[in-house]
Specification:
Blueprint lengths: L1 H9 L4 H22 L5 H17 L11 H64 L5 H9 L5 H7 L4 H19 L4
């Protein structure tokens, strides 16, 4: 029977593969499952088994009946193909783990940098608020009304019985003082 199968496969007759599937599929499945068990899913196992049959079909010219039985040739193919699959699966999982670790590290850095920037921003805002609170009156009141309440300079001048230019001059001096401590434009 082996000689018939070998001749069919060498002639590239697909009936040879059918015979191999009928005769050896249980043993090949056992070999592949025992090697890939715990490392792969059902689809990987089925693909590996298919690759065994394709490899036997494509590599039939390497079989030498003087070196051993045909079934041994088939089972050795199954073993080495399954081991290759196992190595590829392990490598893929390691690569995914490395990528995942890198993403976590990047995310941790982003979160840390964001938190750090937020703390710095809050500290600067506290410094600015403290600086504004130390303005002399009526500058402090004018500043709050203009920039926190959004009141027009004309309204502030009317409310405090002064001129618009006086309010604008005081606000300008406040902005200059803030500009010095911030180091930018206000």
């Amino acid at each position: 029977m082996e000689n018939k199968i070998i001749k069919l496969i060498k002639k590239k007759d697909h009936r040879g593969i059918d015979y191999i599937v009928d005769l050896y599929s249980d043993k090949i499945s056992y070999i592949v499952n025992s090697i890939l068990n715990g490392y792969s899913n059902k689809e990987d196992i089925e693909e590996c088994i298919s690759d065994v049959f394709i490899s036997v079909y494509n590599d039939i010219h390497t079989y030498d009946n003087k070196k051993g039985k045909f079934e041994t040739f088939v089972f050795i193919k199954a073993k080495y193909i399954a081991l290759d699959y196992k190595r590829k699966i392990i490598k893929k999982k390691e690569d995914e783990k490395i990528k995942e670790d890198r993403l976590l590290k990047i995310n941790e850095n982003i979160v840390y940098e964001s938190a750090e920037k937020e703390v710095i921003k809050k500290e600067k805002l506290k410094d600015i608020a403290h600086f504004i609170n130390n303005f002399k009156e009526p500058d402090k009141t004018y500043f709050y009304l203009k920039y926190f309440i959004n009141m027009e300079s004309k309204e502030i001048a009317k409310r405090y019985n002064t001129t618009v230019s006086s309010v604008e001059n005081r606000l300008y001096r406040c902005r200059l003082a803030l500009k010095k401590i911030i180091g930018g434009g206000v």
